[in-house]
From TrEMBL:
Protein name, as recorded: Multidrug-efflux transporter
Keywords, ordered alphabetically: Antiport, Cell membrane, Ion transport, Membrane, Transmembrane, Transmembrane helix, Transport
Source taxonomy: Bacteria, Pseudomonadati, Bacteroidota, Bacteroidia, Bacteroidales
Residues that span the membrane, as ranges: 110-135, 147-165, 177-197, 217-242, 343-366, 396-415, 422-439
Gene Ontology cellular component list: plasma membrane
The keyword DNA-binding belongs to this UniProt entry's keyword annotation: no
The keyword Protease is annotated on this UniProt entry: no
Source species: Xylanibacter rarus
């Protein structure tokens, strides 16, 4: 079922305009979804590992990362938005069997995103110092938080090109290489963190006492370990996409630095709403952090841990969503809108089923999931309560994740971005501001659960309306 050759044959059926039956469509969805889900889970595990390692240093260290986490998501999201503007176009061209134009898009993407991320890095470094205080963090956690954010910023240029390369490979239907590299990134993160966060110490291995060297950098070590993992794997993705991918390789291509405006305009058309959405959504996360901050360091740490633990549940939705983007994009490029609609419905319902099942596991194992990350009982109880509230919203969260990915594959980003923003700002933050003073951290997560359920409902409406299929690029 998971043969790479079988996946290529099924993708070729889309590009050649052949009819696919239900079994073949489900097989192809599985071929692309499973590696992508594994990649998403390993990315989440990396966050989980960071939180667990830093959590062992105490609540103050955890709060130092938690206070700037939403801002790191903002800048990471902007790099993803920039990459998607080019990879969605590539998916359409690959679906039409036009690999020359797909490679042209890739070259334009490398140059445009490289320039973009240099500007982004400069902005990050300028705001790193005052950022924790702007977000409501105390003077006791601000220095560590600023160092963590500044180190993260330094990895952005390579991270951006790695994200672009990964997105381009996925647009071609190659989910396996990005997934394998994501697993490696998680392993490298563990190794780097282990030596960078903790000081030199004695550890027991199979009954033997071993002196384990360490840098003792604490919070800064967690940032540096993650940055190094990003850089190593980013270089690997760039190498594979540009030199090894049969659909995308640039080594035999004549390089031109002249801008090709049609591709750049289409990229802007796709990426600008996504980028604005990331800014506004991350801004909302920052406001949410500011709502949580007055509740104290225990609440900040518990909120951070609960977010990390919950992401283990919703990452499968993002993995299926990546498959949906590729399948819908290639189907539209091949001139098969009915096939695109069939893939859309199947991926959305599969995402809802998978995340519903995982939410049950999350509810039951919430004490263990939070307990791994912190020994502090006050933080544990707050985090467990938050996770169990959120479990009820996961199926509808899946609907919003995968339906948005379907829209993205069609190049439909403006209306879905507005839907996400309206739901986040008008529903979640309004409710959180009202409920937090009454119920504390539980109130913030009650607001989140209600909002995600609402968001899933409006995205299902968008899906069944069929309006996402009417968007034209070029």
């Amino acid at each position: 079922m998971f043969s790479a050759n079988k996946g290529k044959d099924l993708l070729a059926m889309i590009r050649n305009g052949q009819t696919m039956n239900g079994s073949q469509m489900l097989n192809l969805i599985a071929q692309l979804s499973v590696p992508s889900i594994l990649a998403q889970l390993t990315n989440t595990l990396m966050v989980y590992i960071d939180a667990s390692m830093v959590g062992s240093l105490g609540a103050k260290a955890s709060a130092s990362i938690g206070i700037v986490q939403s801002t790191t998501w903002l800048f990471g999201g902007l790099t993803s938005a920039a990459a998607m503007g080019f990879s969605v176009q590539a998916a359409h061209f690959i679906g039409a069997n036009d690999f020359v134009k797909a490679r042209q898009v890739f070259r334009q993407g490398i140059m445009a995103t490289a320039l973009f991320t240099l500007i982004l890095t400069a902005i990050c470094l300028v705001i790193a110092g005052p950022l924790p205080l702007w977000l409501g963090g105390g003077a006791d956690i601000a220095p560590d938080a600023s160092r963590y954010f500044a180190i993260f910023c330094m990895s952005l240029p390579v991270y951006q090109l790695g994200i672009l390369s990964s997105s381009m490979l996925k647009s071609s239907g190659n989910m396996r290489v990005p997934s394998a590299v994501s697993v490696l990134m998680c392993l490298l993160d563990v190794v780097f963190n282990y030596f960078l966060i903790f000081s030199t110490r004695h550890v027991s291995v199979l009954g033997y006492d071993i002196l384990m060297p360490g840098m003792g950098m604490g919070v800064a070590g967690a940032a540096l370990g993650t940055a190094l993992a990003y850089i190593v794997t980013g270089v690997m993705l760039i190498w594979f996409a540009t030199l090894r991918s049969s659909e995308l390789m640039l080594k035999k291509e004549k390089w031109t630095f002249a801008p090709l405006w049609d591709y750049l305009r289409n990229a802007a058309k796709i990426s600008t709403p996504m980028g604005a959405q990331y800014i506004m959504m991350s801004g909302a996360q920052i406001v949410s952090t500011m709502i949580v901050a007055p509740l104290g360091n225990f609440a900040i740490a518990a909120n951070t841990f609960a977010i990390a633990a919950e992401s283990l549940c919703y990452m499968p939705g993002y993995g299926i969503g990546e498959a949906a983007t590729t399948l819908v994009g290639q189907s539209i490029g091949a001139g098969q809108p009915r096939l695109a609609r069939s893939f859309a419905y199947r991926t959305v319902f599969l995402g809802m089923i998978v995340m519903a099942a995982i939410s049950v596991v999350m509810y039951i194992t919430a004490p263990q999931m939070i307990g791994i990350m912190t020994p502090v009982e006050e933080i544990r109880q707050l985090g467990i309560g938050a996770l169990r509230i959120e479990a009820f919203a996961e199926p509808m969260f899946a609907a919003s994740i995968v339906a948005y990915s379907v829209c993205l594959g069609a190049g439909d980003t403006l209306v879905p971005a507005c839907m996400n923003l309206a739901s986040m700002w008008l529903v979640r933050l309004t409710l959180a501001a009202y409920l937090a003073p009454i119920y504390g951290l539980r109130g913030v997560w009650m607001a989140m659960a209600i909002e995600l359920t609402f968001r899933g409902a409006i995205f299902l409406w968008r899906l069944f309306s069929g309006r996402w299929l009417k968007v034209k690029l070029g």
